[in-house]
């Protein structure tokens, strides 16, 4: 018989960790699995990238997040914070375990589940392959669970350009260590936060930076307020070469072909030499598990179907949490870590309600185990919740 865990959380990001801790306080057995390390999405940010949200908005599980200079947390500081929270609460996490299948457990021939499997609704197949076989879809082992929380985020793969040459080794969808670009000619494709921040940092790091964006100018919104003055100054001075109303049409090992021109202008083609190309044009969610479970909505984002009061999907025992609920978000993001802190408590409330006996349901309420006064961190600070609603920072 397969190993059984009452609840499984898929995704060891901030909300996945916060969900597991909420379950622990409610006495709900849980384990967390992730295809990568703890905080996998954050781990691929460029070194020393800072959060847009302030520290109190990205803190989890009631544990304060402090930085040495009171500035917004960097990638390194936040990953260190997540490890500390995991250790403090002894969250059971299995990293580099990719869930490749989630299937309902079939009942026996009489239409009833076997007694030993009476609480088992879902069978999860895991792949522990690394390196070149990381995307292997054949399970190495299986685990059964009564409930599954999909806290898988929404930025798994870089968006593609759809042009010849984008698979060449010097074309990347992520900004790497700035040091590696020193003295090199770098074309950055995009015009929002990722692209603008990369342009500024690479210029400071000694790269020869050009910026390609398909609109007439950088967008009025969606750029961090401390980045806009600097990037505009660098463009005005010519320190960063800009190609507005331009699109990449082809990439070779030595050159990039740009097509430039507005709607009333005849397009002009330029073939320019570049050593590196960074296509920082957004990211897509890996919705393969949502598709397996047939819970994908008809929205362009491919967001999952779920009840916002309980976070449960149309499949009983399958929940979604965190930015995963937004699917693949466009450049105007609406779902962030800072407005997902109530998801863990909603799921825990629903699970505890399912587990309560008829006698319990008449008058008893389920309190957090260990510290009954703790409650859920998102509920405990009403002032923070109000600030997030009135002034979202992300």
Can you give a write-up of this model?
Residues 382-394 have a biased composition (Basic and acidic residues). It comes from Aporhodopirellula aestuarii. Residues 352-394 are annotated as: Disordered. This is NAD(P)-binding domain-containing protein. Keywords: Oxidoreductase. With 394 residues, the chain is an alpha/beta fold. The protein has two domains: 3-156 and 283-390, FAD/NAD(P)-binding domain (3-Layer(bba) Sandwich), CATH 3.50.50.60; 161-279, 3-Layer(bba) Sandwich (FAD/NAD(P)-binding domain). It has eleven helices and 17 strands. The strands form four sheets. Strands 1, 2, 3, 4, 5, 6 and 17 form a seven-stranded mixed β-sheet that branches. A five-stranded parallel β-sheet has the order 8-15-9-10-11, covered by helices on one side. α1 (14-26) packs parallel to α8 (343-355) and α5 (193-204) packs across α6 (228-237). The protein starts with a strand and ends with a helix.
Task: Jot down its keywords.
394 residues, alpha/beta, FAD/NAD(P)-binding domain, 2 domains, seven-stranded mixed beta sheet, five-stranded parallel beta sheet, 11 helices, 21% strand, globular, oxidoreductase, Auxin_biosynth/cation_transpt, NAD(P)-binding domain-containing protein
Q: Helix proportion of residues, in percent?
A: 10-25%
Q: CATH superfamily name of the largest domain? A: FAD/NAD(P)-binding domain
Distance between the termini: 46 Å
Number of helices: 11
SSE pattern, N- to C-terminal: EHEHHHEEEEEEEHEHEEEEEEHEHHHH
């Amino acid at each position: 018989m397969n190993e059984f865990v009452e609840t499984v959380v898929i995704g060891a990001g901030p909300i996945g960790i916060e969900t597991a801790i909420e379950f622990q306080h409610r006495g709900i057995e849980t384990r967390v699995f992730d295809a990568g390390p703890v905080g996998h999405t954050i781990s691929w940010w460029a070194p020393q990238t800072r959060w847009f949200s302030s520290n109190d908005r990205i803190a989890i599980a009631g544990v304060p997040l402090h930085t040495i200079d009171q500035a917004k947390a960097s990638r390194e500081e936040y990953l260190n914070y997540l490890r500390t929270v995991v250790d403090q609460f002894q969250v059971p996490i299995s990293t580099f375990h990719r869930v490749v299948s989630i299937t309902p457990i079939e009942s026996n021939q009489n239409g009833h589940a076997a007694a030993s499997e009476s609480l088992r609704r879902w069978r999860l197949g895991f792949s522990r392959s690394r390196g070149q076989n990381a995307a292997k879809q054949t399970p190495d082992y299986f685990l059964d669970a009564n409930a599954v929380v999909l806290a898988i985020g929404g930025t798994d793969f870089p968006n593609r350009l759809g042009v010849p040459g984008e698979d060449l080794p010097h074309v990347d969808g992520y900004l790497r260590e700035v040091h590696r670009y020193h003295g090199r000619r770098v074309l950055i494709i995009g015009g929002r936060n990722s692209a603008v921040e990369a342009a500024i940092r690479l210029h400071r790091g000694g790269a020869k930076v050009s910026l390609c964006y398909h609109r007439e100018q950088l967008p009025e919104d969606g750029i961090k307020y401390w980045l806009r003055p600097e990037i505009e100054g660098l463009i005005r001075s010519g320190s960063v070469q800009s190609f507005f109303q331009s699109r990449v049409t082809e990439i070779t090992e030595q050159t990039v072909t740009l097509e430039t021109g507005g709607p009333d202008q005849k397009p002009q083609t330029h073939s320019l030499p570049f050593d590196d190309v960074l296509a920082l044009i957004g990211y897509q969610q890996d919705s393969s598990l949502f598709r397996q479970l047939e819970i994908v909505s008809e929205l362009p984002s491919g967001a999952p179907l779920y009840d916002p009061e309980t976070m449960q999907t149309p499949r009983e025992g399958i929940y979604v949490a965190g930015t995963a609920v937004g699917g693949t978000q466009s450049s105007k993001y609406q779902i962030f870590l800072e407005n997902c802190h109530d998801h863990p408590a909603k799921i825990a409330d629903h699970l505890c309600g399912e587990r309560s006996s008829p006698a319990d349901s008449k008058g008893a309420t389920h309190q957090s185990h260990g510290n009954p006064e703790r409650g859920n961190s998102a509920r405990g600070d009403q002032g923070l919740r109000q600030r997030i609603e009135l002034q979202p920072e992300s």
